[in-house]
What does this fold into?
Amino acid sequence: MAAKQEKKAQPTETQTQSAPRKVASKNVALAASEKAGIVIGAWPGTEDLMKSVWGKMIPSGKLFRVITIQEGKSLQDELAELVAEESVADEFVYAAPNLIPCSKLSMEDLRMSLAYVFADGKTDFTTPLPGLYVKDALINLFASVQGKDDNEFLTAYAARFRSRPVAAGFTFGNIVTPVNRGDPCENRVIEAMLRKKFITANAVGFAAIASLVKKLIDE
It folds into this structure.
């Protein structure tokens, strides 16, 4: 009677998320389960902190990547690189730097169609908020929309491939608070962490609130 073959232990959801990403050898395609469905942009030097806070807030078992983004890099260039990246899923959520989640998030939160609205009513799609992207749709748009700035490009993407966006703003709702100064009001930042879904920060603003982000992780 043939000996029974031992079954290899399958990775748990936690192991899947925390294990180092496998690098495929040449001519070997990555399985869908090995591709990141969430990609988080981070300013240089903030990668570890962003990985920790996102790892705490996203649904358990969701594979995600944190990538370094230099200030001034075009969002279109970054999206084009993600389209070409084998380790990124065909449908992926991307959050430009530095977007800080303030509470537990569902995939519905991350896939929601959002647009930042300024106090004067101007709509902006380049403010860092999570968004769902489909590689085939991006390729289609890259081919048909050229010479546009990032906001024009993302406005066109939203119009063609997303539902009507939910308005997000600093002065209304509970979605986002921007921190773009080196001396933000700490009480307002703490209030945002208690009430809002996200804080968005440029490199200067993030440096000013990094200690509060660490406390958010430790809670």
User: Anything to note?
Assistant: The two ends are 56 Å apart (CA to CA). Strands lie at 36-42, 64-68, 88-95, 99-101, 114-117, 123-124, 131-134, 166-168, 176-179, 198-201. The chain is about 35% helix and 20% strand.
